[in-house]
Specification:
Radius of gyration: 17 Å
Strand content: 5-15%
CATH topology of the largest domain: Rossmann fold
Strand order of the largest sheet: 1-2-3-4
CATH class of the largest domain: Alpha Beta
Distance between the termini: 26 Å
Largest sheet: 4 strands, parallel
Number of strands: 4
Length: 188
């Protein structure tokens, strides 16, 4: 997946870029710090961290099983898990996502579900020499690992979004983007 980002940058003749990634996109961004750090101007990661509690591995195994049962099963499993706890905005967004997902190659998602050992990234964080911003939901899985990572990177900031869940970090741009804009303004 890192290779895809670099290929697009090469095709567009972009030598360095700011990178912003949410969830799996954050995982790809952390991969850029390992394999293509010289191509980054800055890194912003929304609600992702490489150190994961054992229960998350079980979630990833469950999702891998969903992917193996086909796209419609995955869509049904995800949308039904949100019933009753998801505001109308997210239900509409999930339906839009489902339509796009039906047309998407799911190979990268399946690969992510199969990755169990991501701790190897820890050794490179102290050498990361680009500004980094980690924004995490208070009521999410990644707040602790992201805070740990931000402490290892010399020029990193960590923001905990009070009262938010994982989907809010994606869906509440009104709350999140001011932090990103301020970060980029200071670091550009």
């Amino acid at each position: 997946m890192v290779e895809d980002i670099i290929s697009v940058m090469d095709d567009l003749e972009v030598s360095r870029s700011h990178y912003v990634g949410y969830s799996l996109g954050g995982y790809i961004g952390l991969g850029l710090t390992k394999y293509a750090l010289n191509r980054l101007k800055s890194l912003t990661v929304f609600d992702y961290g490489p150190y994961q509690a054992e229960h998350l591995f079980n979630v990833k195994e469950t999702w891998a099983g969903y992917y193996n049962q086909g796209k419609e099963f995955m869509i049904s499993a995800l949308t039904s898990s949100m019933t009753g706890v998801t505001p109308t905005f997210y239900k509409k967004a999930l339906m839009n996502w489902a339509e796009k997902y039906r047309k998407t190659d799911t190979t990268p998602y399946k690969a992510w579900c199969e990755i169990r050992e991501q701790e190897e990234l820890a050794s490179i964080f102290p050498q990361v020499d680009v500004p980094c911003l980690f924004i995490c939901a208070e009521n999410g899985t990644y707040k602790v690992p992201s805070k740990e990572i931000s402490g290892m990177i010399p020029d990193a900031e960590y923001i905990l979004m009070k009262g938010l869940i994982h989907l809010d970090v994606w869906g509440r741009s009104d709350l999140v983007l001011p932090y990103v804009k301020n970060f980029l303004k200071k670091k550009s």
